[in-house]
């Protein structure tokens, strides 16, 4: 009792030490994670403010740039040469040169405006600062806008998507002195319209800036990706919406270009159909948190290592103390426990001296199995000192052989036998040589296996045997015939078959009854067995039709056997039946190229000819050489 109390106290102390160490590590780890979470929230807020500020700045600059470009296009209405060109359709070379110089001067006012074109009311380009440019198909989308009767709508903005010459298209209506519409001036703001502005902004190493149109298609992207068309990517799909108002959205989403998760601020560009999206990569603004985590991790691991070392030392001391307490108890209980195991095991167990081959101890199942004297009340079971009369276990002990779950037939002292699974293992007991013999009686199982084997044999025989005549059935005969033909083809041996049936068997059945007909079939089967060899295959293949397969037999020898069988059946008499039983048949042999069907067909043809010739005839195949 005292030992049990001390053991429980040691176990309780060890459990408290483990829980204390785990709680210390969890609290310290929780503090580290809390600090990292607060830091992450702070840098995320700073990134949100940065993205909002940059998107507002770029939106204002984009709106200002488009407005400035629109004013430049509107000033084209004040150029006399442009008025004359739209009214007359052409200009003298000197006037065209003046117009070119004036438009180029306007382009210098806005470097991001790449070209200016003068378009007539038929939407055809009649003059361009780019002399190599002809009529452009993209003007067709301005046609309906150009002819709208809306004096307030003098400016139009659209997007031209092209990897080389794409950008923002601007258009401004041109009127003559009387206010009549005579054409429009168009300009193209290319993809690099405020590259210098963007290059001075800080969006991080992995950030991006997008300009989107009304369909959320990308007009421009910074930084540029070589060999990739920005318009080939799908619109941004918000993953987590953080904030939203009439002109601005803040959300987290994967980039359509590289799949990297970024924090995007998307803002409307004034009254123009464009949006500016500034994306700051989480990889950039969380770098500070990761650096902080990598600094905090070694500190926590150091604390954890010290805690675990201290816990290990304390648990080792407790374990040694507990092992000392349990050692004496195990020594005291081991002998009694081993004896109880032997006595209470459901297997038959023997302790045998391998040198003298005498039984030292036997439990109750072993005494019953070997018909030893039963154990008396109060008897310890030790020191039986009886000779072991059990083969082949005696021989194993003599040869020093060990066995593991070996299935053998045991022979007892009275020469009776039984089947058992036996294991033999050497061990040391009280300093003396000893062997443990374990036996499990499987005699009942062996009996069931034998009965099952006999049943399987009966089923196999029934599957190939005709139940009335006890001859082989049609299925087995076909299989044997196919195998015999294969053998003949391989080795060039001879083989013959005979097919016959009983004459007037239907009339016989109608006259004497089916029982008499069954007796005739049995008599024919018996006569067939008496006149053929053991190697011949006799089969009933129909109601009164039979087949005989003669392996390694010539045609004339098979014919002699059938004549002998005919003679034996002629001398067979049946009670209460006056007439004799006869049969008709045909005999043929194997020929190269034969199949089971062709051989049976020839024999059936001979049988049919025998019937036509008066019955009680056995015809032999005359075509055989």
From TrEMBL:
One of its GO terms (cellular component) is plasma membrane. Residues 493-623 form the GGDEF domain. Pfam families: GGDEF, PAS_8. One of its GO terms (biological process) is negative regulation of bacterial-type flagellum-dependent cell motility. Its EC number is 2.7.7.65. InterPro entries: Diguanylate_Cyclase (IPR050469), GGDEF_dom (IPR000160), Nucleotide_cyclase (IPR029787), PAS (IPR000014), PAS-like_dom_sf (IPR035965), Rev_trsase/Diguanyl_cyclase (IPR043128). SMART domains: GGDEF, PAS. GO terms for molecular function: diguanylate cyclase activity. It catalyses: 2 GTP = 3',3'-c-di-GMP + 2 diphosphate. PROSITE patterns: GGDEF. It comes from the Bacteria. PANTHER family: DIGUANYLATE CYCLASE DGCM-RELATED, REGULATORY COMPONENTS OF SENSORY TRANSDUCTION SYSTEM. This is diguanylate cyclase.
């Amino acid at each position: 009792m005292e030992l049990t109390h001390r053991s429980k106290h040691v176990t309780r102390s060890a459990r408290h030490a483990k829980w204390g160490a785990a709680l210390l590590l969890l609290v310290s780890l929780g503090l580290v994670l809390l600090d990292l979470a607060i830091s992450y929230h702070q840098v995320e807020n700073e990134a949100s403010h940065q993205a909002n500020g940059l998107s507002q700045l770029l939106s204002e600059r984009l709106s200002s740039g488009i407005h400035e470009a629109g004013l430049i296009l509107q000033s084209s209405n004040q150029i006399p040469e442009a008025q004359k060109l739209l009214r007359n359709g052409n200009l003298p070379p000197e006037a065209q040169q003046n117009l070119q110089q004036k438009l180029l001067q306007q382009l210098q006012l806005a470097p991001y405006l790449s070209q200016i074109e003068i378009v007539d009311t038929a939407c055809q380009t009649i003059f361009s600062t780019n002399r190599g440019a002809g009529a452009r198909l993209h003007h067709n989308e301005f046609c309906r806008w150009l002819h709208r009767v809306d004096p307030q709508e003098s400016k139009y903005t659209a997007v031209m998507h092209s990897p080389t010459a794409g950008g923002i298209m601007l258009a401004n209506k041109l009127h003559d002195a009387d206010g009549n519409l005579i054409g429009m001036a168009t300009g193209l703001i290319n993809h690099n319209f405020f590259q210098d502005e963007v290059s001075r902004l800080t969006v991080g190493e992995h950030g991006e800036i997008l300009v989107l149109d009304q369909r959320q298609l990308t007009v421009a992207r910074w930084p540029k990706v070589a060999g990739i068309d920005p318009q080939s990517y799908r619109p941004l799909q918000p993953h987590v919406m953080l904030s939203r108002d009439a002109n601005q959205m803040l959300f987290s989403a994967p980039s359509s270009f590289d799949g990297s998760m970024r924090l995007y601020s998307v803002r409307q560009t004034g009254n123009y159909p464009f949006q500016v999206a500034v994306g700051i990569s989480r990889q950039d603004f969380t770098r500070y948190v990761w650096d902080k985590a990598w600094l905090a991790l070694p500190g926590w691991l150091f604390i954890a290592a010290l805690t675990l070392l201290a816990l290990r030392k304390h648990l080792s001391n407790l374990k040694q103390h507990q092992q000392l307490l349990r050692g004496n108890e195990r020594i005291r209980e081991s002998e009694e426990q081993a004896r109880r195991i032997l006595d209470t095991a459901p297997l038959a167990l023997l302790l045998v001296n391998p040198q003298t081959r005498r039984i030292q101890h036997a439990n109750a199942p072993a005494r019953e199995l070997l018909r030893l004297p039963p154990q008396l009340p109060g008897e310890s079971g030790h020191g039986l000192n009886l000779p072991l009369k059990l083969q082949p276990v005696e021989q194993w002990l003599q040869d020093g052989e060990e066995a593991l779950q070996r299935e053998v037939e045991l022979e007892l002292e009275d020469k009776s036998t039984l089947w058992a699974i036996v294991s033999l293992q050497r061990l040391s007991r009280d300093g003396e040589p000893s062997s443990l013999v374990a036996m499990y009686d499987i005699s009942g199982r062996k009996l069931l296996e034998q009965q099952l084997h006999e049943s399987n044999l009966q089923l196999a025989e029934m599957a190939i045997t005709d139940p009335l005549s006890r001859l082989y059935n049609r299925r087995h005969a076909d299989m044997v015939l196919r195998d015999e033909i294969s053998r003949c083809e391989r080795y060039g041996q001879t083989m013959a078959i005979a097919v016959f049936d009983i004459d007037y068997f239907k009339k016989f059945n109608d006259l004497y009854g089916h029982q008499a007909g069954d007796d005739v079939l049995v008599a024919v089967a018996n006569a067939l067995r008496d006149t053929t060899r053991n190697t011949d295959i006799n089969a009933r293949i129909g109601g009164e039709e039979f087949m005989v397969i003669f392996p390694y037999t010539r045609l004339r020898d098979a014919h002699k056997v059938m004549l002998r069988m005919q003679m034996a059946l002629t001398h067979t008499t049946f009670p209460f039946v006056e007439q004799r039983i006869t049969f008709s048949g045909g005999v043929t042999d194997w020929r190269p190229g034969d199949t089971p069907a062709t051989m049976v067909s020839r024999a059936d043809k001979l049988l049919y000819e025998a019937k036509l010739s008066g019955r009680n005839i056995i015809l032999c195949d005359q075509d055989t050489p």
